Amino acid sequence: MRPLNPPLPAWKRSLDLLFCAAVFPVFTLVTLFMAVMVRLTSPGPVLFKQERIGLGGHRFKIYKFRTMHVAADTRGHQQHFTALMTSNAPMQKLDAKGDSRLIAGAWLIRATGLDELPQIINVLRGEMSVVGPRPCIPYEYDQFTPAQRRRSESVPGLTGLWQVSGKNRTTFEQMIAFDCDYGRRRSLGLDVKIIVLTPVALLVQVCDQVLGRARPAPVAPAPAAKFESASSFDPDETARVSIAR
After folding, report:
1. Where does the pLDDT of residue 159 fall: very low under 50, low under 70, confident under 90, or very high at 90 and above?
2. Residue 37, class by beta-carbon neighbours within 10 Å (0-12 exposed, 13-18 middle, 19+ buried)?
3. The dihedral sign for the CA sequence 47, 50, 53, 58
4. Is 234 a residue whose pLDDT tops 70?
5. Which residues pair with 102 in a beta bridge?
6. Would you place residue 97 in the very low, low, confident or very high pLDDT band (cuts 50, 70, 90)?
7. Per-domain residue ranges for the chain?
8. pTM recorded for the entire structure
9. In the chain, what percentage of residues exceed pLDDT 90?
10. Residue range 3-26: average pLDDT?
11. Nearest to 67 by CA among 91, 90, 100, 96
12. How far is it, in rounded angstroms, from Cα 101 to Cα 69?
């Protein structure tokens, strides 16, 4: 088994704590907004806890603002994820075209990433970092090959190389490649660059969501798009091009 990256070197932990201090006022305001929004649209708690996979495959609980109705069915998401793993199609979320499990206005909260803000609690606890691969759900991790599980050799993060390199426009194999590439090239400079690029990536994601929801459904299924095979994909080259944009 490959050795894990040192969990949180001093420079990374310092950057995490500085980030948490900077966004805490925003977190407070968003918490008040979400409390009112949830109270008006859906009975239940404001915060939502979910088990995820962290460093080395260890499980932990993440915190999110609840954007779905209580006891929403997850079987559709499991089927959707399995299809993304095998189809080599772009990693579009289920709510890209509308998801009945979401409370009113939740698609915009999710597109802007504001629902993930409570994970600064996980960052403060050292379970996550600001930058790193997104922590996957256990049933997703169970389907990974040993090579794909290498993405868990780094502490999971709020944002990462994949998020600023196309995210929902990339395939599952490309996501794995970006996450593993980050683990090999992790540095203070790369983390700062990813943090700076994240607001732009979120704006692009919001625009994609708006356009996707406005676009009418096709009458007939479109032909499958062709993507590069995993063997010909160069994560270093793609990451350099994506970040340079």
Report:
1. very high
2. buried
3. positive
4. no
5. 68
6. low
7. 10-214+230-244
8. 0.80
9. 51
10. 87
11. 100
12. 6
Residue with tokens 């704006």: 203
Dist CA 168 CA 171 (whole Å): 8
CB distance 52 to 136 below 8 Å: yes
Residues 6+ apart with CB under 8 A from 206: 108, 111, 112
The DSSP 8-state label assigned to residue 148 in this structure reads G
Distance CA(140)–CA(51), nearest Å, equals: 12
**Listed residue (135, 202, 190) closest to 161, CA to CA:** 190
E strand or H helix at 222, and its extent? none
Helix 188-214, helix 10-41: angle, nearest 10? 20
Question: How far apart are alpha carbons 23 and 85 in whole angstroms?
Answer: 34
For 105-151, the pLDDT digits (tens) are 888 888 888 999 999 999 999 999 999 999 999 999 999 999 999 99
Judge contact between 118 and 63, C-beta under 8 A.
yes
